[in-house]
Write a structure and sequence with these properties.
heterodimer, A: alpha/beta, Rossmann fold, 2 domains, 7-stranded mixed beta sheet, 14 strands, 48% helix, globular, B: mainly alpha, ABC transporter involved in vitamin B12 uptake, BtuC, two-stranded antiparallel sheet, two-stranded antiparallel ribbon, 11 helices, 4 strands
């Protein structure tokens, strides 16, 4: 009995050791974590004219858990921008730190407090909406300026003068989608499948329906699902087919969307599928049969296949470092860092200023700047003083397994 | 009410239900014999699905006869899951055999999180798209108004085969007899010369091998694979096991099928929002009327 206990202790130790080893492995294959920070800074102090100090930039995001895909896209995206800026060696230098929030509001608050104790001067907010709603309240109280790459719920910025978004707000996506479908005359009878336990999906859905009514689009029905029921969509697809829908609007993320596409295919039902930015990523799902997504349309701020120099550079670098094609979350986070650089330069901020001083400068500066980033089109990215972004979404269609611009 | 739609819904309900049933078997066997709820069962399903996915994608370029890759993938997944199940039992549950059942329950939840996070470290959280083991073949009836996919037929067939095999195993073999003895009274079984620990290990081995099969079938029907894939069907299947009477093998089948059908019909004819609530409302009603579940045996506690 005793021997047995010793053995199981040893096994447990081995298991936890292998877990830690896994962590270590993760860090080396993903040079996004601390070591690379230290590396770039060490080299900077020798070669650049920097003051030696850097702005402390913090953010929370799901780095583990079932929403980790978003955090693990935003964090590397921001890291690439920070490394680029630090390597240039200008006056603006950054020190980036991300804390895991597991997409849980309570954990996000702890993560935010850790960052605050670390001395965070400016914030990338939270990657996802639900934690974002909690951390943005604190950032507002503490007067730490926040620019979130992808927390798209309007609740994140509502009533907070120092919280800004890089992504479209959910209602704006619904609005833009309805207008796009109307302008391009894409469907006569529209059916919507949306996720009713998700603020992202319901936010887009409500505005889409409102705008569709104004425009006179014919919505023949809608059906919902939740996290618990996101496996079987035959019922919803049958309802759409019965209603005679020729276009199905999917304001949802790509994972359930991939199931919907495959089940529609099994039923032999082939309407036009129209998605929003959450659909981005469907082609990079390992093992996904891209022919199922043939003809799917989506509005997205970022196109990894664009041929302009900035996008090509970013995509190449991302693929080299992380072995994946970046999605819009990575691009939005990358743009956030450059937006900060532009705004800090414009306002003349220095790293020795307090978070509160920087915050007031940013609140005054952000509505005045125009950023030419990876997301949006040639007209650039601007903000109003409510923290809402204005940039043009790109209409894409999937052809032969690749995104192609529709305009 | 459209008859063809009704049949379509019925078929997808049965297909979903058969998968719940196979998973529920794992819960019910372990509960019946070890008197514990193995909440890590859902995550063993996920591990099985990943193993099969990697074997199949590894073999996809090799020139093999049709169906060799899926069969090989499923077999490897079954072996890996069997080993995993036995190791989990040995390391996490066996040391707690004498501990209060609450401690074992918490440990099981811990193992579940351990598996999910380990999977995330090893295979990342980005979803993988599982290629169906039988391809996209389908059976079309009534001029295309009714389609039944090959996966559905396979799932139902496998479910029935497993059920018959397990019933025969528990009723006719020596090990099955030992299992029944353990489930009735562990102490007395030990006095009769039954190796209780070995019996429990075998139960875990069988349950985990079934989990691998369930994982492969589940993913063939609903192909998006992530480290948390197993948790929701795991909970639904647990509900199914309680519904049918936990500890009872035919109960798991009945509970699983009913759960799948009620869920699909509730979604189709009542409300997509309320489908899960309706499923659980039915469960509550059943448990109020028959506290031991539909086919559960009411055991009188002797004081």
């Amino acid at each position: 009995m005793k021997k047995m206990r010793v053995l199981s202790l040893a096994m447990a130790a081995a298991m936890s050791a292998s877990l830690l080893a896994g962590c270590g492995g993760g860090t080396t294959s993903q040079p996004s974590a601390a070591p690379s920070d230290a590396g770039t800074q060490a080299s900077d102090s020798g070669s650049s004219t920097a003051t030696g100090a850097a702005f402390k930039l913090g953010g929370t995001g799901p780095l583990t858990g079932d929403a980790a895909i978003y955090g693990l896209a935003a964090y590397p995206g921001a890291q690439i921008a920070v490394d680029e800026i630090n390597a240039e060696g200008g006056d603006i230098q950054f020190e980036l730190r991300y804390e895991d929030d597991v997409n849980v509001p309570e954990t996000a608050v702890n993560a935010y407090n850790t960052l605050k104790e670390w001395g965070m001067q400016i914030s990338l907010g939270s990657v996802t909406s639900q934690p974002g709603v909690s951390t943005s309240v604190l950032a507002n109280e503490d007067r730490i300026f926040s620019l979130t790459p992808s927390a798209s719920s309007p609740d994140v910025i509502a009533g907070k003068d120092n919280v800004y978004q890089m992504c479209f707000s959910d209602p704006n996506q619904g609005l833009a989608s309805a207008q796009y479908i109307y302008d391009q005359n894409l469907g006569e009878n529209i059916f919507v499948i949306w996720k009713n336990d998700d603020v992202y999906s319901s936010g887009i859905y409500e505005q889409f329906v409102a705008e569709a009514e104004t425009l006179g689009l014919n919505i023949v029905g809608n059906a919902t699902f939740t996290t618990d029921t996101a496996t079987d969509f035959t019922v919803q697809l049958n309802q759409a087919q019965d209603a005679g829908a020729d276009l199905i609007f999917l304001p949802i993320y790509y994972q359930p969307a991939s199931l919907i596409l495959s089940q529609a295919n099994q039923m032999g039902y082939a309407p036009t599928f129209f998605g929003v930015d959450g659909m981005d990523g469907i082609l990079t799902v390992e093992g996904f049969d891209a022919s199922l997504a043939e003809g799917v349309m989506l509005l997205t701020p970022f196109n990894a296949d664009a041929t302009d120099e900035a996008t090509v550079n970013f995509v190449t670098k991302y693929q080299e470092l992380y072995g994946e094609t970046p999605n819009q979350f990575a691009a939005d986070a990358y743009d956030c860092v450059y937006a900060y650089k532009l705004a800090l330069e414009t306002a003349g901020c220095t790293p020795d200023m307090s978070a509160e001083e920087i915050c007031e400068a940013m609140v005054a500066t952000f509505p005045t700047i125009t950023l030419n980033g990876l997301t949006g089109d040639g007209e650039g990215i601007t903000w109003n003083d409510q923290g809402e972004v204005s940039k043009s979404p790109k209409g894409m269609i999937i052809e032969n397994g690749a995104y192609v611009g529709m305009d | 009410m459209n008859v063809m739609n009704f049949l379509n819904y019925l078929i997808s309900g049965i297909s979903l239900g058969s998968i719940y049933a196979i998973i529920a078997l794992g819960y019910t066997m372990v509960y019946g014999i070890a008197k514990m709820l193995n909440f890590a069962h859902g995550d063993v399903i996920m591990v099985g699905a990943y193993i099969c996915f990697f074997v199949m994608s590894g073999l996809s370029s090799a020139a093999l006869p049709p169906f060799a890759a899926p069969i090989l993938g499923t077999l490897v997944a079954m072996v890996v899951c069997t080993v995993l199940g036995v190791v989990i039992e040995r390391l996490a549950y066996k040391p707690l055999r004498q501990a209060p059942s609450l401690a074992v329950l918490i440990t099981a939840i811990g193992v579940s999180y351990f598996l999910q996070n380990a999977a995330q470290l090893l295979w990342t959280s980005s979803p993988k798209y599982f290629t169906s083991v039988v391809g996209n073949a389908q059976l079309t009836l009534f001029d295309g108004r009714l389609t039944i996919s090959a996966v559905t037929l396979l799932t139902i067939a496998v479910c029935i085969i497993i059920m018959l095999a397990l019933t025969t195993f528990t009723n006719k073999t020596k090990m099955g007899k030992a299992m029944r003895a353990c489930s009735e009274d562990k102490g007395a079984a030990q006095l009769m010369g039954i190796d209780v620990n070995r019996t429990i290990s075998v139960t875990f081995a069988i349950g985990s091998a079934l989990a691998a099969v369930a994982g492969v079938l589940f993913m063939s029907a609903y192909p998006s694979l992530t480290p948390t894939t197993g948790s929701m069907p795991g909970i639904k299947a647990f509900t199914a096991a309680v519904f049918g009477g936990i500890g009872s093998i035919p109960g798991a089948l009945l509970g699983g099928l009913l759960l799948g059908i009620i869920e699909t019909f509730a979604r189709a004819y009542i409300s997509t929002e309320l489908s899960t609530a309706i499923v659980f409302a039915v469960l509550i009603v059943v448990l109020l009327v028959k506290p031991a579940g539909l086919l559960g045996k009411t055991v009188r506690e002797k004081v």
